[in-house]
Amino acid sequence: MSGAANLAPVLLALAAAFCFALALILTQYGLRTMPSWRSPLYSIGGALVVAWGLSVVFVDWRGFSLEAALIFAAVGCIFPVAVSILAVRSNEKLGPAVSGAVGNVTPVFAVLGAVLFLGERLGPGQVAGLAMVVGGVALLALRGGAGGRTWSVWVLGLPLAAALVRGSIQPAIKTGLALWHEPLAAAAIGYTMSTVVILSLVGRRAWRAGPGHPAGVRWFLAVGFANGTATFLLYAALGLGSIALVAPLVALFPLFAVVLSFFFLRGEQLHAVGLLGIVVSVAGVILLLVGT
């Protein structure tokens, strides 16, 4: 792959990382006026409207592939709906910086999935990088609190589970895009299925509870726009580059989250050990990237 061709997936993946981080920050504002159980209705539903609105205009439906569409639909049953639910709960418990940092283990699941199912190979540097990512998360588990937060170790399972879902779906998406290279259609189909899932889970409860707080609705619609944009950018990057290249770059979103937290959430500053955990994890991500 030429240098110019390799630059596109890098930029797309970094843009996806920024949007994922932005969604974490916006979630904190939304949680001030809306319970976490209700928020995915608006974040997923808002992203669905935007995705289909854009796909109608920009997707070449003449190349439609039923096999690819079924892959995207199957992925949509768990992503982004499961990640949205887990992310908002972990954000509520841990704060955006820590919940984002634990998401750094996504490359572990994504790259290992690529090795097992797509035949991609890992070099010694990539293996070391994966180990450093895991070590950084271990430091966060040791002591990474921000804003006076405390938590049980099990709470880290929320962002870890989100990372597992986010990483495990990437080989499937790459397979679907090889059949039909339309990342915007992939996002739209996936969000359709995720909307069906979230409506089946909390739709009746939300209907009985009445309309949500207007401010919370607006914040989580913004979260949905940020996450929807990130999902499209992630799919576009996967369509152009290898998982071993894209996944580590997208996993840089905790760095963006820390910077955005510093400017917009003054009460969410990490302690030294938490910052060290992020540094170690990001160093591991860099090793992964260098080895691609």
Question: Could you give a quick summary of the protein structure above?
Answer:
This protein has 292 residues and is mainly α. Helix content is 78%, strand content 0%.
Mind explaining what this structure looks like?
With 292 residues, the protein is mostly helical. It has one domain (3-120, 149-260). It is built from 13 helices and no strands. The termini are close together.
Topology diagram in text:
Blueprint: H1 3-30, H2 39-58, H3 66-76, H4 81-94, H5 96-102, H6 106-118, H7 124-143, H8 157-179, H9 183-209, H10 214-240, H11 243-250, H12 253-264, H13 272-290
Average per-residue pLDDT, rounded, comes to 83
Strand content: under 5%
Shape summary: globular
Distance between the termini: 11 Å
Q: State the helicity in percent bands.
A: over 70%
Radius of gyration (Å): 18 Å
Low-pLDDT runs:
none
- What structural class is derived from the secondary structure elements? mainly alpha
Number of strands: 0
Distinct helical segment count: 13
Order of helices and strands: HHHHHHHHHHHHH
Q: Report the biggest beta sheet as strand number plus sense, adding barrel if it closes.
A: none
How many structurally independent domains?
A: 1
Give a quick set of tags describing it.
292 residues; mainly alpha; globular
